[in-house]
Amino acid sequence: MIRKLAFAAVILLLSFQITSSAEKGFELSIPVIKSVVKQGDIVRTQVSIINIGEGKNFEVAYGSEINFLSINEDSFFISEDGAKTVSVALDSSGLSPGVYTGQISFNSEGYSHKIPVVLEVESARTSFDSFIEINPKSSVSSPGGIFESKVKIINLVSPNDDVAADYLVKDLEGNVVIEDSEVLSVANQIEFVKSYPLPENIEYGNYVFAVKTRNGNEISTSSALFEVSSEEIMFSPENGREYSLFVSFAVILALVIAFLLFNHFWNRRVVETANDWNKKLVDLKRVKFSDIGKEIRNLEYKKAVLKKAYEKGYVSRPSYEEGRKKMNLLLAGLKKRL
Predict the structure, then answer these.
(1) Distance CA 10, CA 265 (A)
(2) Which domains does the chain have, with CATH numbers?
(3) Is the pTM of this model over 0.90?
């Protein structure tokens, strides 16, 4: 029974996955590109585009603050159910230590997927480090809401406990939405929560919360992505179709589970009833022929009951045939003694 339910659930989830994938047109191998480099370094990574369905032409658009981002190909064709890999370069040459943002947009015949890009540039030497843990409730924030994140700053080697901390919220075009700074005393490490009210007019999309620690010329960075959205977006035409598909498959899955449960308990009832009748048939062997006429009538009655049980499906055909055969033999023997 459990296997049937699991099998049905897997089939429906795979169907939903296939349908959802078809709605997307194509998929990307990575959802985000993020690198931490030393000042002057260049890092390269790859993105694979997996086409779904018939062959398509693709166009790639990208942009970043101070143009640190580049791609080796910006237009190509991918055959039916094929794949293509492009190379992405993040160049920190000429950049001051800090956190920089960008975005890559893959477009094909009405389909579009975007990858946020974050480049953290640190000085060659760092004596402090920082870590960010965005509150799960703030991972998807709304305009005018409160953004909240834990921040941990660690003193790695500095004999000087004082460190300047800069806090930034910026979009993927490099526009700063929130900016704050303070001087902290960190002998070993400290952990605290930073919270900021987001502007009422902030646009929907992906944003980066960044922390930059400064100790003289030694600068380290940390960052994390979050999204600004609203409840209305969940039911937009783009997402509404996928949401409707999900609800439809959930309803179908519930109906299948209900049917399997009903079928399981009905079959169990039939088996129990059949076993009961089989026990009664076994009891026929113990009949004593003290009153032959009475036993003949009793056997005829049981024969009729057995037939009715067979017609209703409580007794299998082999059991019915075997029981009827035994009853006929007993009846024939009793009638000879009349």
Answers:
(1) 22
(2) 31-121 (2.60.40.2310), 123-230 (2.60.40.3880)
(3) no
